[in-house]
Amino acid sequence: MDGEGFTLYRFNPDTPDPSRSTCNDGCAVAWPPVLGKHQVQYVGLQRKNIDSLHRKDGSVQMSIGKWPVYRFAQDTAPGQINGQGVDGNWFAVAPDGSRAGAH
Question: Which InterPro entries match (predicted)?
Fold first, then answer.
């Protein structure tokens, strides 16, 4: 979760090494990337797991455990997890970058 209590997500088609976001254009409207690295306080994260990457549009996106992270536009209130498991590719991100709640 971010400092406002919103769930952060990772996208399976992205890559952690090297950190690369594949969610662009319309995808980034539904799944807004978390931009910047230290602009917001993040809950339960160790600084060593927080980094950033450059997106194809030139913006800087936050990563956790080298995975690019996003919010879900349909999460309209803190604590919601409406994006969990969407299309079998979107999962809440754990503090180390792994998929939270993955079985």
Answer: Lipoprotein_repeat (IPR005297)
